[in-house]
Design a protein that fits this description.
By secondary structure, the protein is an alpha/beta fold. It is built from 17 helices and 20 strands.
């Protein structure tokens, strides 16, 4: 699929915040109070709220114009620097002396979330800031291909802002997508698409939304009340439902494994807006948004994805590989999984090979490798890679079949594939603690050994079962064929 969002500009209006993460280790309790003492090891800061929506748009190749309210403070200046430092973001934010920049501090010790500290004023923005916001909306809306209203109920989206943005959009035939936080969806009257999650729909509907029929009925009532075009209900692991006045389109979730749903709604509305702006029909835009959500929930934190990840995820059904097992992962999913294991203090091993015809030698080696680590990643040569290495008649078994068999082994925790002749790039990306190879190699001849040893990892050579090889099996099988 030829996805290209580079010509799409999205106006992002709403509550912006800075998300600060403090990571550390806990080994004792404070003598001052019965609370853990976190020894700080790492800090991260990223754009949150409507800022995360904009990050997703930029990471997918589009342009995002941010209209929000920042405080005239250190966090506001830091947020402005982050916006200016990202390709694809345009800063049209209002700087206010009347309120602080929203700041969410998350403190994690030993990979556990200990506490969150919020600094905010969620009262409605001042009239002077309101006037400036509306001026910037008037300026930018006609120059954009879609508008997103990202409501976190922190005061930026006063009724006047919402009404002005939607009216201006309608005057210029620009679609408006809303991520709601109010229980009254009529607050967003005239929006093109409203994207509540199931709990938000339940709060607004004030009635049951347990079945698809109930969801559709509730969504239709709310669409009529809000005079909206359609509603996209996100249902976590159950996927999404696109409900129109006279239609329902359901689509199942695509995530291989859910690690973190933080910001998934931001990814959904960003992808949907870009797709609609690029001219895709609404149902296709929802399919793309669903595929994008399936990628980001497989990552840690308020994550984004790029256009290649979206394309791969969307086309996964055609390739068939991602459906073979929950253990099979693409590169971004594998990286997130390994990072999660590492944060839990687990020793991650890595083994690779063609595994064209699985035999006792393969199984024995992988069992020994798994016994020497906590989690084992098994990397398979892609079909083209095997063809270059083994000849035009190979592989005997295509990648989906080989991956399905390897994933079925108890010794495998994660299965990935690579198209290069060697897994060197994969090793550099995943940085395993232990690199496993058969004893027919030496440490010096193992691909990636120098890299792994360089950052303090290990290389282990595992004894092979004599007389077991795929080449020998193919040779003996050919001898059983009748002579022509």
């Amino acid at each position: 699929m030829n996805l290209d969002f580079r010509k799409s500009r999205i106006l992002c209006i709403g509550d912006i915040m800075i998300d600060n993460f403090y990571y550390g280790n806990v080994s004792r309790v404070s003598p001052e109070a019965p609370v853990p003492v976190v020894l700080l090891t790492e800090t991260k800061a990223m754009l949150g709220g409507v800022g995360n929506v904009a990050r997703n748009i930029a990471s997918l190749g589009g342009e995002a114009v941010l209209v929000a309210v920042l405080g005239d403070d250190l966090n506001g200046r830091e947020t402005s620097k982050m916006i200016d430092g990202m390709t694809g973001l345009t800063d049209a934010c209002v700087v206010s002396r009347r309120r602080p920049t929203i700041n969410k501090i998350r403190i994690l010790g030993n990979h556990q979330h200990i506490v969150r500290v919020d600094e905010e004023n969620s009262a409605a923005i001042h009239d002077e800031d309101l006037a400036t916001m509306m001026e910037r909306i008037s300026h930018w809306a006609p120059q954009c291909d879609a508008i997103i209203l990202s409501d976190y109920a922190k005061g930026a989206l006063r009724q006047e802002v919402v009404a002005h943005a939607i009216k201006t959009a309608r005057d210029h035939a620009v679609p408006v997508l809303v991520d709601p936080k109010r229980n009254d969806f009529a607050f967003y009257r005239g929006a093109t698409l409203i994207t509540p999650n199931l709990s938000e729909l339940r709060a607004a509907a004030r009635g049951p939304v347990d079945t698809e029929d109930q969801i559709a009925a509730a969504a239709r009532r709310l669409i009529a009340d809000a005079q909206a075009g359609a509603m996209l209900v996100t249902r976590s692991e159950k996927g999404m439902m696109l409900v129109g006045p006279d239609s329902v389109f359901s689509i199942g979730a695509k995530a291989q494994e859910v690690f973190d749903v933080s910001g998934a709604g931001d990814t959904v509305i960003a992808t949907a807006a870009l797709s609609i702006a690029a001219g895709y029909p609404l149902e296709r835009s929802v399919q793309l948004a669903n595929a994008a959500a399936g990628v980001v929930v497989g990552k840690l934190g308020t994550a984004t994805l790029d256009i290649d990840e979206l394309r791969d995820a969307f086309e996964a059904n055609d390739r068939g590989v991602e459906r073979i097992s929950e253990k099979y992962a693409n590169l971004s999913q594998a990286t997130a999984t390994v990072e999660l294991w590492r944060r839990r203090g687990l020793k991650v091993g890595f083994a690779n090979g063609c595994f064209d015809i699985l035999h006792r030698g393969h199984v024995t080696m992988l069992q020994a490798a798994r016994a020497a680590c906590d989690r084992l990643v098994i990397a398979l040569n892609g079909d083209d890679s095997i063809r270059r290495l083994k000849g035009k008649t190979r592989p005997i078994n295509k990648l989906p079949d080989r991956a399905a068999v390897i994933a079925a082994l108890q010794s495998s925790d994660l299965v990935v594939s690579f198209d290069d002749d060697t897994p060197l790039a994969l090793i550099e990306q995943l940085r395993p603690d232990v690199l496993f190879k058969g004893s027919d190699y030496t440490v010096e001849t193992v691909v990636g050994a120098e890299i792994v040893l360089g950052y303090g990892g290990e290389v282990k050579l595992i004894d092979l079962v004599p007389g077991r090889s795929t080449t020998d099996i193919i040779k003996r099988s050919s001898q059983l064929l009748p002579a022509e």
